[in-house]
Structures are given as structure tokens and as C-alpha cells.
Amino acid sequence: MTKSALQIARAAYEPKVPNTLKGIVKIDEGEPTQSVSHQEEIKKLFPNTYGMPIIKFEEGTEKQNHAPINVGVILSGGQAPGGHNVIAGIFDGIKNMNQESRLYGFILGPGGLVDHKYMELTSDIIDEYRNTGGFDMIGSGRTKLEKEEQFDKGLEILKELNISALVIIGGDDSNTNACVLAEYYAKIGAGVQVIGCPKTIDGDLKNDMIETSFGFDTACKVYSEVIGNIQRDCNSARKYWHFIKLMGRSASHIALECALQVQPNVCIISEEVEAKNQSLDDVVQYIANVVAERAADGNNFGTVLIPEGLIEFIPAMKKLISELNDYLAHNEEEFKRIKRSHQRAHIIDKLSEENSKIYASLPENVARQLTMDRDPHGNVQVSLIETEKLLAEMVGKRLAEMEEKGEYNGKFATQVHFFGYEGRCAAPSNYDADYCYSLGYTASTLIGAGKTGYMASVRNTTAQAAEWIAGGVPITMMMNMERRHGEMKPVIQKALVKLDGGPFRVFAGQRNDWAKNTDYVYPGPIQYFGPAEVCDQPTKTLQIEQEERLQKS
Ligand code: FBP
Questions:
Q1: Which is catalytic among the residues 202, 204, 217, 432?
Q2: Quick check: is 202 catalytic?
């Protein structure tokens, strides 16, 4: 493989790790834990893995002798920068325990375990991928690992390869499934430990013990660089409004973090739209008012950040999508047989009166996108819905109406963008390279300590890496019961943007100034080599949240 000079230099980067991971590790076990809610139900569903203590690693003195161990690893769901370093950390960790240990990667996600597709990850392969972006070492996939037949099928290959521990690197759904798998293998005495690692650029797998999911840092920095470049272009030509949709299927953390980094004129936060029970019309009017206000000052340009999940947070749209989900779940085959040109009329006919009206009012392309295939977890594929175009069009129409009433006098020309895939496989920032390697090494240490049903946790990450706190959190501790496909299920609680949380409050306190004034920040590209204040800074979200934690403690 031909490599750029940066790739070569980056391959030699040695991730910084907490001091506790550098030498002999002592395991400190805390008090028994409880799930965040629905304790009785979750305890009943996870009799073998419920209530385990939080684990904190400390510097130890007594070196343990470990027998060789074979470990399997799976990358699950969307790509996130740093995944290869998690695998490198696991590899180095198990080799440090015993040089004869082996690591196997299951190919293209959880499906690889069920279909027995795997490869051994040797030191040559691992070295090739250290500090690189992407998940291409073994690939990823969205197969949902949830049925006992799948677990049994997986166990066959685990036994064949003498694998006694499996690390699942994924988001909230994949880690929920990792916990179900850990419980099942414990129940049947399979002799396989299961450990999870928190991944997703969306940033919605976090809590007091998991400060952030990996990849969020790098992805937000990539998007902020590009938005900054657009803002500079925008401020140079002064002729376009840029509507920029950003990934983040359920939560608006990415949009919020980018807003904190670049200070755009508008950033919509889906969680606020839902809390205020706003309609699509309200969102359109809000943006149109900002455009009109800036136009009054002679500024016919600006930037609007839109989280990709917005459409699902608008209460009326949420109801519509829910009815569409039910309809399509029960009538998928019939619907697919209908001619494309007749599908819209068919849906309008089948929906309740209220939802039918909303559906009929949507532009053709958005209506079509709402009826496209769901992902394996039953989610609408919001990355395919062109909300940025929808809003740009609707704001244009609203401004025309305002102009007729004498409420607006300006020029409105738009450019639309969607940033998502550009950032998911970027070379990990120093933060993600260090954090991911530490997570992987932590996972291997939990395996060495014989643990199962835990997620690797590395905390205190706004401090220098040497002071980071590594350990494990029982996955059941993060669970609650939620309705999924009409049934109550135990799931890891998703972290949405908290409207009373520091990051949102900082944004809300400044957004009116950012709307009116042109106060753009141009963050520039991620820097890998240079002073720590340029290269190693965590996200603004994490810095603000950490300050809040310190104030509370
Ligand atoms: P994960 O939650 O699996 O990490 O994926 C998140 C994400 O990047 C979302 O931001 C986006 O909506 C989705 O993946 C897109 O998925 P796909 O790659 O399947 O198009």
C-alpha cells in the first residue's frame, strides 16, 4: 500500500495511555451497582450480570501470570475514527499478558460471528493499521446480534478457535446486545466473556462513567474545519446562505459541538424543537427571521447547521413516522409491489387524516425518503432525508411571503451540504488515537481479570493522559426499559442533548449574537504534531461537561 508522508509519520505515533495501564494493574472493585431505572425488571432479565461493581484500575505491584488467551473482536455499526486503535490496544494488551495469546477479527461486523467469517490479526496486520481511520482492517456491519440461534451459531466458531473472550465495539444498541450475549453465555456456561467498547461519532453513548464515545472528537473536528472553510468563503463572497446538515441520527451532539467550535448564524437543536413542541413551520420561521434580520443590516449571507435527526424530533413528524413505520412493518411486500409513481397517493390514502395531511404537504423527495427501507434496528435512515434542501426551500418560500408583507427586503441564494461520511473514517485526532488505544488496552485488562458484561471505561480525559482513570462499568448499570417495536426491552439509555446541560446553555447564551453578527470561528484542520494546546484539546462539549462534573463534586 503506498502511503503519504503523514501516514508514515502517523504510523509511528505512540498513543498516550493512563499511568495505570503502563505497569502492573491492580483491580479495585467498588460497591454493587443498580441500573439507571426499572431495577427489578432488569435484574430479572440479567441474573448473572446484574449488580456487578464498577471496576477501577490502580497501579499494582504483584505481577500476575496469565495463560495464553484467544480473543475475538467485532466492529459494529457506523464507522468512527479510532476503531483500529481499539483493536491495537486489545492486541498489545493480550500479548503483554502472554505472548502466545491470539486475536481474531470477525469480518464485516456481527454477521461475521454468525457466518463464521474471520481472520487472525497478526502483528504485521495490526502495525499496518495503527493510528489510521476507518474500519477496513476487518470491516463493520449492522447485523443485529439478538437471537439465541445467532448466539449458539457464534459459539460454534468461538469454540473451534478456542476463543474465550469477545470484544464488541459498537454504539448503544450493539452494547445492549453485547450485554445480552454476555448474560446468555454466562447462563449456559459457555466459558466466553463479552466486553463492550463505546463507539459512535454521534456522541449519544455517554454517562457519568463513559465520558464520550470514541470518534465524536475527530468527526466534529473534521466537520468544524469544513464548516469554518465554508464560513470564510461565505464571508468573502457575501452572497449565499449555506444550509449544512450534520450526522447524528438521534441526538444533536455533533451539531451542537460544531456550533460551539464555529459560531454559525443558526444551529437547530432537535431536542429543543421537541421540548418546545415546535412544528416544521416554527423552525422555518425562526430561520427566516434570522435571514431577515441579517438582511436588514445588509448581510445576505450566513450559515445554518441542521442535525440529521431533526425530522424525527418534530412532534407532528414523529407521529407521522411512527404511523408510517407501523404501516410499512405490516404491509411492506404489498407496498413494494405498488408502482413508484402511485406510492405517495397510496400512503396518503392509508394514513390517519392528521398524518395524511402532513404527508401530502411534504415535497416529493422527502415524502419518498420517509418510506424507504429501515435499517436493521428499525430506524428511518435519516442520513437519506434531505432536510437541508427541505429547509432551504421552505425558508425561501417564507421569505417571499414576508417580502410581500414588507417584512423582508434582501437577496436569498442558497447552497446545501451534508457532512457525515467525510468525517467518519478520518485519521483519528490525538485525543481519539489515545482514548481508543486506552479503551482497547482496558478491554484486554478486563478480560485478564476474568470479567464479562462490562464496558471498557476511560475517564478524566480532559486531564493529561497519564491521569486518565481506566476500568470497567457493568453494562446493566446503564440500562432502562424502553418500548421497541411494540415491546418493552432492556436497552442502554441513549444520551440526548440536555437542555439544562452546560454545552447547550453556553450555546443558547450566545446564539442571538452569532445570528446577528458575523462572528465566525475558523478552526482549521486537525493537527497531529505540535504543541499540546493545538493538537490534544478535547471537544468543547467534553470540556464544558467536565467542568460541570468538577463543580458538582
Ligand atoms: P452508529 O450509531 O452505528 O455509530 O452510526 C451512526 C451514524 O454515523 C449516523 O450518524 C448516521 O445516521 C448513520 O450512522 C448512517 O449509517 P449508514 O452508514 O448505515 O448509512
A1: 202
A2: yes
